[in-house]
């Protein structure tokens, strides 16, 4: 599986961005992670292969919306009401098993993109 993110950029606080992740191959469960400077990897949103189950980090609920278009083999992340603390490198991950109650962890994913930077200025 190969993944290519796009859509990052520099925006002001309160702004919006839409990230995309174009995939090739068997993607199964996909997710967006982010890593801020000096911090660990954080799961932002996870979406099962059927697109019916989506989970979010508490810090982004109500502001971020994950979706996928399986016909295009593309994962999306709509980010609204951006805050300075959303500044991070955002990574797309794929090819994890279907999850039920427990959201996946980074080691569940077999494929990762190179990342796209999101910078929010106040």
Characterize the structure shown.
The protein is mainly beta. Helices cover 0% and strands 52% of the residues. The chain has strands at residues 2-6, 9-12, 17-24, 29-35, 41-47, 54-56, 64-69, 74-79, 88-96, 111-112, 116-121. Strands 2, 4, 5, 6, 9, 10 and 11 form a 7-stranded mixed sheet that branches. The chain has a 4-stranded antiparallel sheet with strand order 1-3-8-7, with no helix packed on it. A hairpin with a 5-residue loop joins strand 4 (29-35) and strand 5. The radius of gyration is 13 Å and the shape is globular. It starts with a strand and ends with a strand.
Brief synopsis:
Helix content is 0%, strand content 52%.
Helix/strand/pairing category: mainly beta
Assign a percent range to the helix content. Answer: under 10%
Strand content: over 45%
Query: What overall form do the CA principal axes indicate?
Result: globular
The whole-angstrom Rg is: 13 Å
Please mark out the parts with pLDDT under 50 across 5 or more consecutive residues, or reply none.
none
Order of helices and strands: EEEEEEEEEEE
Mean pLDDT across every amino acid position: 96
Number of DSSP helices?
Answer: 0
Can you count the beta strands? 11
Largest sheet: 7 strands, mixed
What's the end-to-end separation, in Å?
37 Å
């Amino acid at each position: 599986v190969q993944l290519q993110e796009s859509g990052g950029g520099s925006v002001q606080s309160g702004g919006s961005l839409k990230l995309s992740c174009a995939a090739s191959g068997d993607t199964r469960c996909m997710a967006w992670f982010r890593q801020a400077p000096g911090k660990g990897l954080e799961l932002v949103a996870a979406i099962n292969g059927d697109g019916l189950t989506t989970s979010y980090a508490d810090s982004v609920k109500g502001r971020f919306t994950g979706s996928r278009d399986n016909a295009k083999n593309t994962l999306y992340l709509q980010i609204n009401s951006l805050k300075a603390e959303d500044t991070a490198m955002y990574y797309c991950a794929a090819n994890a098993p279907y999850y039920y109650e427990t959201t996946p962890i980074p080691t569940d994913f077999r494929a990762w993109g190179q990342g796209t930077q999101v910078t929010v200025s106040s």
